[in-house]
Amino acid sequence: MSDRCKQHASALLDNHFGDSGADSERPFDADLSALLDDQHAQAAWQRYALVGHIMRGDAQANQQIDISAQVAAQIAQEQNVVVQPSLSGGGAMSRAASRWLKPAGSIAIAASVALVAVVSVQQPVVVDEQQTTQSVTSPALITNPFGGRNPVSYNTVIEQQQAPSEAEVAQQRQLLYSYMLDHQRQLQLSLQEDKEEQQQIESSTVEKLPEQND
Amino acid sequence: MTKYVVAIALWFVAIAPLGAVAQSDERAESVERAANAGQVWFDRMAKALRSLNFEATLVQSQGQRIQPLVWLHGSYDHNTDIELLIYLNGADTRALRIGDQTYYYSQAGGSYTLQSDVTFGLIPPAFYKPFTQINAQYQVIASGGMRVTGRNAQYLRLISRDDNRYHYDLWVDRESGMLLKLQMMTPQGEILEQLQVTSIAFSEVLPEQLTEVSDIQRPPKLYDLQQLTELQFALRPQWLPAGFELRRAHHRKLHDTPLPTDYFLYSDGLTEVSIYVTDQRTQALPNLALQGPESIVNAHVNGFAVTVVGKMPADTLRRIGESMTVTATQGNPQ
């Protein structure tokens, strides 16, 4: 759904539909019926309405986002493609399966952290370029490359003989990203390992006391 | 709850004989009292995160990035709690945890199962356990109250006993013990990560949405993709902040790269740090240090590139990296 369409949904909810100057040239009716026919717009409407309810403090249990339905739909959608590595060869289905399974090799973790990693690895590049034109000795103060103030400042010190080429910078960024992802992945595997060890100990205590080997 | 009352009562009994003491002792006493109350509140929070039935919305911010989430949690039976997290911005990402099985679904990066009784990526796993687990390296101090998410909240400062780690500020609902707000910051007080519950509704029973998730499809389990072998290089860390213990150590290729790497994972119970060692000739990074919610430092030591990653000040990571020395014996560290 386009942003404009979302704006319409939002405007409609606030009874401002047709207010905005940019839309005034188009007939109100056509937009409205298009909006009402659009499933995405309807979903957006629901969400906006919920946000409104929550903001007014009158959200009730039965007005909450219907997550179960969403999960069910999502699962139904994924069902055929997520966990069936042994599908009979060929066919769109198994291609889809392998597409879904492959990322398990390049697991993107908790989107949150992964994306932050991207943000942070973008920093040295900017600094690096500034540094070569300014002073090499003083640690560079990081400013937001996109303007505005960066709430997190990255204290960056980079020692480099000469400015790296664009390809080298891209390679370095990719490498930093790999370290960040690898770290996230290991943290999760370690979490899993702890749990498995804990269970092993629990099951072995039934027969004998666990050995203390610290 | 009665346990805490008893704990407090015992504490008073213990401290009462020292009643008439000098003023400096009184000050020490009040600090101790705050620390004790802090632990009681922390443990209450840990219990609440496991046992409460709630439907919440929250916002997580890291650096320039802000992510709204829906967070549902409920206690299914005495042993099993169910949790559902939905990230509302960007690629549709959800985490569903049923007891000690966590299922991650993402349109962006694939889906997988992790055997873990904590949903990764939101709250440090240590916050689900009693404070005594991290008591040696951290202290938690109750200091006053504040209104958070429209509720009466207790303010807790969780600080490391040295300045080598990040600190946390926590706001805990006085009525339920629920965590309402969290800040992670540098020892200097610069905020790196925030979590703020924006609305929350408690209920007596499991939220209805969570009653219908038991028979959903489960993605494949996360596992080590590569053959892990013995450490190949002779470089070992000689310094880490107090309390860090080795959790993993092996040799393999760095994720998604052909780089042969020695890997070490250390944890102090709350904070984890990864150390990577590769041949300097094969790794193209300059010496660098980035500080953020996850810091990363790359240093050249004895012909090796040492890369250290973790939720810690870049200075600490640099010290860890630079402490790496060649040891005579190869094999397991420490």
TrEMBL record, chain A:
Subcellular location: Cell inner membrane; Cell membrane
Anti sigma-E protein RseA C-terminal domain residues: 138-188
Gene3D superfamilies: Anti sigma-E protein RseA, N-terminal domain
Transmembrane segments: none
Domain Anti sigma-E protein RseA N-terminal: 9-85
Region (Disordered): 191-214
GO molecular function: sigma factor antagonist activity
Annotated membrane topology: Single-pass membrane protein
Quaternary organization: Interacts 1:1 with ECF RNA polymerase sigma-E (RpoE); this inhibits the interaction of sigma-E with the RNA polymerase catalytic core and leads to a decreased expression of sigma-E-regulated genes. Interacts with RseB.
Purpose: An anti-sigma factor for extracytoplasmic function (ECF) sigma factor sigma-E (RpoE). ECF sigma factors are held in an inactive form by an anti-sigma factor until released by regulated intramembrane proteolysis (RIP). RIP occurs when an extracytoplasmic signal triggers a concerted proteolytic cascade to transmit information and elicit cellular responses.
Family that this chain belongs to: Belongs to the RseA family.
Name listed for the protein in its UniProt record: Anti-sigma-E factor RseA
Protein species of origin: Pseudidiomarina gelatinasegens
From TrEMBL, chain B:
Location(s), subcellular: Periplasm
Domain of life: Bacteria
Protein name: Negative regulator of sigma E activity
Domain MucB/RseB N-terminal: from-to ranges: 39-209
Residue stretches making up the MucB/RseB C-terminal domain: 235-324
Keyword Signal: yes
GO biological process terms held by the UniProt record: regulation of polysaccharide biosynthetic process
GO cellular component annotations of the record: outer membrane-bounded periplasmic space
UniProt GO molecular function: antisigma factor binding
Pfam families: MucB_RseB, MucB_RseB_C
Keywords: Periplasm, Signal
Family of the protein in this entry: Belongs to the RseB family.
Organism annotation: Pseudidiomarina gelatinasegens
InterPro entries (UniProt xref): MucB/RseB_C, MucB/RseB_C_sf, MucB/RseB_N, MucB_RseB
Source taxonomy: Bacteria, Pseudomonadati, Pseudomonadota, Gammaproteobacteria, Alteromonadales
